[in-house]
Amino acid sequence: MKGILNFTNEQLISQFNCLKLAKFRSQQVIDWIYSKGVTSFLQMTSFNGQMQGLLSNNYYIYRPQIATISKSTDGSIKFLLKLDDGLTIETVFIPEGHRNTICVSTQVGCAVGCKFCNTGYNGFKRNLKAEEIIGQVLAIKDYVNSWNDKTKRISNVVFMGMGEPLYNWDNVNIALQNLKLGGEIQGLSSKRITLSTSGIIPVLEKIIPTLECNLAISLHAPNAITRSSIMPINDLYNIENLLPVCRIYNKLHPNKIITFEYLLLKGVNDDRVMAKQLIKLLHGIKCKVNLIQFNSWEGDSYVGCDEYTMQNFRKILVSSGINATIRHSKGQDIMAACGQLQSSN
Ligand code: SAH
Ligand code: SF4
Predict the structure, then answer these.
(1) Nearest C-alpha to atom 11 of ligand 1 is from which residue?
(2) What is the CATH number of the domain that holds 218?
(3) Per the residue annotation, which of 10, 90, 117, 205 is the catalytic one?
(4) CA of 39 to the centre of ligand 1 (A)
(5) d(Cα 175, Cα 8) in Å, to the nearest integer?
(6) In the sheet where 88-96 sits, what is the strand order?
(7) Tens digits of pLDDT across the chain (345 residues)
(8) Ligand 2 pocket residues where CB is under 6 Å
């Protein structure tokens, strides 16, 4: 039995070719799975029994199991999803005006070990399969569609949940491609998908020429010493080598901007000197800076900045011509905000 969500459109065509099914059949199956959201081949009522049987004997359509649902007072909803091996991951639904964003996980845990991040603190268990990544989106869509409220259609997907997407690139790439399936009704354009990474340079270099979705880089510091003190990955993939890759991205994608995520930590990276260093570092890069409020978790060792310091930091950036915004996280009360996600086992 093969998980059909693990195949891209092209792979499915060649799969079906081996089963002696015509090419147009793959498009029909994709419509059933990604537009109509069916979870069994028997629900594909446009097929006869023989075809349904052939598909059921060869494939299954994966869904993670929703174990618990936590609702925040701000409208965001955190789902604890149980995988087939019993491990759990978290996925968050975030409604914001006309936008409804799903924040997906790419790994169970994370090996990068950023010191401010709860996911990193809890260590790494395993990579998610492509079907477990795309399955998060489909499971949340099932849930949201059951409300029968057209204003709650999923409009954006961000790869900002648990895990480092570039350490699981092959599976993330399949999920990225499959997010676009399902036509105008359910498929998402690359413009509405954002991938966030701590900056795994060799993988970034490999993928940026063909990367269609938006790119966010977790920078969090304007110099190597400060960055290494909060993100040990900087010892391996240094900020001094990361920024040139961002410049290459700009050249290859002249119509896009990079988002730099910058978590403001009290006494670590939040003063005027750091803001000035950041301005110098980003000089000439087409970008936007997202200043993030620290979300605390049990066992953390940092303190977030007050609103005044955040606004001040932003003003310094803005006065030098940098587009900077402050992101107040949603879902803090249910531990669903950035960096607060963890699996329960
Ligand atoms: N691993 C990827 C994507 C997931 S983390 C990455 O690091 O980019 C999504 C974002 O949340 C990252 O920018 C990350 O640095 C940030 N983050 C982690 N811990 C946080 C915390 N405690 N408070 C606020 N943001 C946090
Ligand atoms: Fe991993 Fe991202 Fe957390 Fe760092 S911030 S530990 S890369 S999930």
Answers:
(1) 338
(2) 3.20.20.70
(3) 90
(4) 32
(5) 8
(6) 65-71, 77-82, 88-96, 99-103, 156-159, 193-197, 214-218, 258-264, 287-293, 323-327
(7) 999 999 999 999 999 999 999 989 999 999 999 999 999 999 999 999 999 999 999 999 999 999 999 999 999 999 999 999 999 999 999 999 999 999 999 999 999 999 999 999 999 999 999 999 999 999 999 999 889 888 888 999 999 999 999 999 999 999 999 998 876 556 688 999 999 999 999 999 999 999 999 999 999 999 999 999 999 999 999 999 999 999 999 999 999 999 999 999 999 999 999 999 999 999 999 999 999 999 999 999 999 999 999 999 999 999 999 999 998 877 777 676 666 766 654
(8) 110, 112-114, 117, 119-120, 163-164, 198, 218, 339
Q: Are residues 177 and 139 in the same domain?
A: yes
Q: Would you state the structure tokens that stand for residue 8, as one six-digit string?
A: 């891209």
**What domain range is 36 assigned to?**
2-60
Is 240 an annotated catalytic residue? Answer: no
Tokens describing residue 327: 């992101």
Beta pairing class for 88-96 and 287-293: unpaired
The domain boundary, picked from 10, 28, 60, lies at 60
Distance of CA 141 from the midpoint of ligand 1 (Å): 24
CB of 343 closer than 6 angstroms to any ligand 1 atom: no
Residue 327 sits in the same domain as residue 240: yes
Residue 269 lies in a domain: yes
Per the structure, the count of domains in the chain is 2
How far is residue 256's CA from residue 104's CA, in Å, rounded to a whole number?
A: 22
Residues 49, 85, single domain; the answer is no
Distance of CA 55 from the midpoint of ligand 1 (Å): 40
User: 131 catalytic, yes or no?
Assistant: no
Helix runs in the chain, H state only: 9-18, 23-30, 49-58, 118-121, 130-145, 169-179, 183-186, 201-207, 224-230, 239-252, 272-281, 307-319
- Regarding whether 106 and 51 lie in a shared domain, the answer is no
Helix (H) / strand (E) containing 259: strand 258-264
**Tokens at 105, concatenated:** 């996980």
